[in-house]
């Protein structure tokens, strides 16, 4: 079977994600909306590969139907045409998750209720069986996106939990960077394993750990929702696992992370151990200690929620002064206070607008 699909990602970072998809599948992908990428005519194995190997994507959703609608009744009629019985087994539970953008006289909850009712009634008519609803841990998750008068209905291949949840964090830093954003930044740094990579404000260690996972080619080891699909060949997935299980490599790399907080460094060490990677973590001050490295990738404090915003500007000033005293080739950072950082290091090579959650931010590349 062949499918069209939506891959979701961090808003503003679609271009990097499209390049990664091309590397994994050797196929073109297309910008769809902020946080969404469109894939055409992909196979089961393509879906296996994206879920297993992608470091920048959140989830991959097979499109069951998409189009335009005029009224809620029109939307309901078009969704009713989907052969849900082909995708859900009689003994499986399901849930519907809807997202709505634009001005409408209905809510996301209304959409979920309507689509859920359609699935139950259609299945009852076609199969003679009433499907179970399980909102917390469904076997099948139907996702719906409505944007103005456009909609798509899809089936999630990844699961309730995003691919960004790597599940190695045993220590949670209060301002931890999302793993997918960290990987996008590492890609943007053009780092290779023959270069030293440093994160001088590493917190719980996400950036160095993700870089080490890249170096070792460690995939996303987790259960995926497509393993529940009756229309997928589960034996192909088992063959895929056997084929790629040995993809993890053992190579030498030079990755370091330091932080001014001993507590965070202890947490980073625990996270690295949990992730199964080797990273040199130690306590140091990024405004005073050595920044000598080929590549520096880091996520500094933004100061948005701090009582004293001047602290961040002072930190940025001292860091930039220290940066000028040391050897480095490329620097990549993300901040929601980019104007403050650029006061002291104005000449960027490239700037990428993105979001940290719903907070506008920029990735600065030097």
Describe this structure in words.
This protein is of the alpha/beta class. It has two domains: about 5-155, VC0802-like, CATH 3.30.2130.30; about 180-220 and about 255-365, Rossmann fold (3-Layer(aba) Sandwich), CATH 3.40.50.150. It contains ten helices and 15 strands. The strands form two sheets. An eight-stranded mixed beta sheet has the order 2-3-1-4-8-7-5-6. The protein is globular and about 70 Å long. The relative contact order is 0.12.
The number of E-state strands comes to: 15
Q: Looking across the biggest beta sheet, what order are the strands in?
A: 2-3-1-4-8-7-5-6
Structural class by helix and strand composition: alpha/beta
- Portion of residues in beta strands equals 25-35%
Please give the CATH architecture of the largest domain.
2-Layer Sandwich
- What helical percentage do the residues reach? 25-40%
How many strands, what sense, and barrel or not for the largest sheet? 8 strands, mixed
Shape: globular
Q: How many structural domains does the protein architecture include?
A: 2
Low-confidence stretches: none
H-E string:
EHEEHEHEHEEEHEHHEHEEHEHEE
Helical stretch tally: 10
CATH class of the largest domain: Alpha Beta
CATH topology of the largest domain: VC0802-like
Q: What does the average pLDDT come to?
A: 95
Please compute the radius of gyration using only Cα atoms.
Answer: 23 Å
Instruction: Compute the separation of the termini in Å.
Output: 45 Å
